[in-house]
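Quick board copy: two proteins, each given as sequence then tokens.
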Amino acid sequence: MSWIFLFLAGLLEIGWAVGLKYTDGFRLPVPTVITVTAMIASIALLGLALRTLPLGSAYAIWTGIGTMGTVIVGMFLFSEPATAIRLGCIGLIMMGIVGLKLST
């Protein structure tokens, strides 16, 4: 169950990172409430996952999911460049996540 919590926490990290773009510096109330709620839920789920998972692995996987997802969403929603180097780096992060999962 901890891995599910961690995965969901990572997805929520993507949500709040993208949500920050829509808050306009926390001036728009609805996006701000949604973003802050996603932040709290993400941290709460990470905390639940840390009951049984090692801190270093769980935190690295959480941030890795968030980083990869945010970069990918940025490419689709905000027309950020999808260069070979960026895609290669996403692949390296994915390899790190898989490696940490397999070693935990």
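And the next:
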Amino acid sequence: MPESILARVEACFRQAETFFERRFARPQVSLQLRGQKAGVAHPTENLLRFNAQLYRENREDFLRQTVAHEVAHLVAHQLFGSGIRPHGEEWRKIMEGVYGLPAKRCHDYAVQRRRAASYLYRCQCPDGEFPFTAQRHSLVLRGRRYLCRRCRAVLEFSGERRPQ
């Protein structure tokens, strides 16, 4: 775990404690998040998960904005409980009033999309060819069935895979 992330998490909590004049429970912090999300807060588990790749590629903004964004979720939960909206008024006021940062819901980091192969499925229609993701293909292998919306036939795997 990079010390800079842990230090920023701690700094955000101390800033909130000074502002609200109360103590907040510190979370477990993980760098195991993958995909397009930069960070995720799990308030009921008091857990923060961050994307190590996006941290490495966007270090300065990540530490300033993303870490504060996720800590604000935990602070809002500890202050107001679980009945609040994730990016609602309480969270926005913490971002803007406590941290002095814009209450942006999403990051704008460049994210490399994974190139996934598609599994071709067919029906009885003349142009009935449907590319399935690996995830959907595995659901079919476990018994899930998909129907063509036009002819209502069960889509069958053609045996072909196409790289995208």
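Board note added afterward: Helices lie at 3-20, 52-57, 59-80, 89-98, 134-141.
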